[in-house]
Amino acid sequence: MNETLLVKHAVGGRAFIDSGKDDISYEWEQTGEETRFTLVLPHDERVAEIMKWKDELNVFLFQEQEGQPTKKIWFYVKDGPVTYDAASRQLTIVSQSKIEYIPEQFSVKL
Fold it and tell me: Could you tell me where the beta strands, DSSP code E, fall in the chain?
């Protein structure tokens, strides 16, 4: 499976992180209703902007499997903690809600 992670300001806002373009490593895990994302990256302008807008973040995962349509998972951070630890270079984002869908299934053909 190929997976791409995006961290964005609001839904249609600018992308702070795109794992398909940025050289970062990340992990994520689902625990009950929460999803915890841990990204490893240096403290730079992106991290500063993420921390500035931490109450308005969305995280997206695009999961691609051969022969299958791309699955999109949209995570809304809401009141979840967003923290950055400079010593370990870890950005942690916790989401309390998610929506999974296949974008192709929402296309309108005229």
Answer: 2-9, 15-18, 25-31, 34-40, 57-64, 71-76, 82-85, 90-95, 97-101
What span, in angstroms and rounded, lies between the C-alpha atoms of 85 and 13? 25
Which amino acid appears at position 110 of this protein? L
Give 55-92 pLDDT, tens digit per residue. Answer: 999 999 999 999 999 999 999 998 889 999 999 999 99
Element (H, E) at 45: helix 45-52
Global pTM reads 0.89
With beta carbons less than 8 A apart as the criterion, state whether 66 and 22 touch: no
Distance CA 16, CA 48 (A): 10
> With left for phi above 0 and alpha for psi between -120 and 50, is residue 88 left, alpha or beta?
alpha
* C-beta neighbour count of 60 within 10 angstroms: 17
